[in-house]
Amino acid sequence: MTTRETRSAVRGVRGDLFDPKCPTRQLLDRIGTKWTSMAVKTLADAAPDEVRFAELRRRMPGVSQKMLSVTLRSLTRDGLVSRRVEPTVPPRVFYQLTALGLSLETTLAGVRAWAEEHMAEIDRANETADHDVDEA
Question: What are the phi and psi torsion angles at 50 (to 5°)?
């Protein structure tokens, strides 16, 4: 079955992460990145207003222009973000979360909060594991 056939077969049906052919796996890869989480948070903080590309980049320390562009293209393709271009020279490009994107922000906020709350524990576990490997 091709990717297109798989997508068509599951359209309108809940995905199954444990099915190797289910597109849920690819979706989780896309929405599970730090840049996606940061972009969605930044756009959610601005909602219902739009944010220009350059402003998004300023609000996301460390993101390259290329990575932000790739992230926004993916979010737009998935229907999580809307994109509006003003035909000026140079063009002004604006982004805004869709209702679907806003629903994702709620879940990502929980994951971000968990990560921030437990980062020290994770660091200690990593140090312990690294120490155990060094001694072995």
Answer: -90, 160
